[in-house]
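Morning F.,

Quick status update on the modeling queue. The single chain you submitted on Monday has been processed. Sequence for confirmation:
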Amino acid sequence: MEVKNIIIENFKTIKYTKLTYTEGIWEIIGDNQDSDYDSNGAGKSTLLEAIQQCLFNRTTLNVPIEDVGRKALGTSNKTHNYRLTAEFSKDGHIYKVINDRAMMKITIYKNNIDLGLKSIPQALKRIQLIVGMDINTFITLTFITHSTIGDLLENFSSSSLMKIILDFNQITALDKSMKLELKLLNGNISSLTHRIKSVEDSLEILGKYKEIDTTSMHRKKATISSNISHNNDVERDLRETIQIYNSQLAARKTLDRRMAALNDGLCITCGQPIDTEEEAKLISYDLSVITKKIDAVDVNAIMKKLVGITTSQKENQISLQQVSAQIIAAETTNQIYEENKEQSEDLRRLLINVRTDRIGKLLDSDILTTAIAAIKKGDLHRHLMTSFVSVLNRYLDQFRSFVNLPYVAISAEANKANVGFILHDTRFSQNIHLNTLSGGERTRLRLILLLAMLATIKDMTGASSNLLIFDESLDTLDTSASQDLAQLFAYLITHNNKFIALISHGQQLKDIEFSGRLMVTKLDGIATMTKETYD
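Structure tokens below.
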């Protein structure tokens, strides 16, 4: 997070000013013309607290929103409506936050587009997500007061800064959220288990359908159909033979009648006596021919064969119906089989996906269960402590090279929920007590501890800011510290603390080469700021 500027309107003693956070080392000087105490009460801290109020709706002093203007603009009993506008960049995006007391609204713009948040709590939550830290972390990383460094001396083995990393309430909340997530996860696993069982049951049902080979059925049907066709032909021939036989019998009867009439010598047509000898010969010949044909036909055999064919045809028709029904049933089964085959393949793919999903969720469940058990036993807390101390020791060595403590080595160690520090005299290879150091050495030591803590917090939380404000926290350093601090500040500027500001009443920092100064002047209850850049 890189804060670019802030516009302050009607905030505490400041009526209007715009502060651009230009890279470099800046001194902040106060001139309170309303008091005999010169710089005290001029509004230097107010200038810096405005960024806190704008982004997080409260300041280092944790003043409620109803009271932020209690000392504003020359009056001590009236709350004024302020308007604070801060601009910063994060992850390649430009954000602008407008905290308008009169409107009771915080508006957030991302790349000049209003995010449309309806309430202050929503806006504050979104700001915290954007900058990646809450107000406590922001103040800890950005505003270094005398009490901040003093905490390291008074609470040497249990720094309050550790709460940012190892807050028991946070771990309790983490435990609670993980248990809830585990419950939901186990519910999903149970649901997936039932889903798998359902799919497996469906596959088992679909697997009962087998493909049937209908070749033999169609061959049998063809044979029966061929037999029926052949029998039809034979039956037709037999019936034609019977029909011819019957027609020949009828013809013979006719000839017999004609022959009987001729024997009487009468005309068959008119009944008159005629000469019938010649016609009788012809009729006799025809009768002999027809009689031979009739005698040549075995009517009983034909009828018997016709009865057999009829019976066979009935049997063939029944067989044909049966085999046709079998073919229809088989083809219906095969159609269902093809449909089920496609459905089964889909179900098998689904089964693979569901099983894979379940395995992944089982692994997640195991991880959460292990983490919850680790929290219960305190292993997670100890792990975080160990990691914190490891990173902290690396920064202690690094910052020690910037602050002159020639024979004092310092290291950190984890002790339950606290961080302990060991001082070692390298000259005599023995541990030493803090109280054996001079006041200047103790301040230097506390500065090393503080900067190492801040760097460690940044490493472990990912929180960062380009601002670093020392609010009267370096006054007890002796004048020989200027050169060391100049090297230290140069290092900090190259590592993203680009705007470093020092508020001080002492003279020991006069040899530091500042980039410029911010002059805060208070007159008649109103503070104004002027910015001067040094050549």
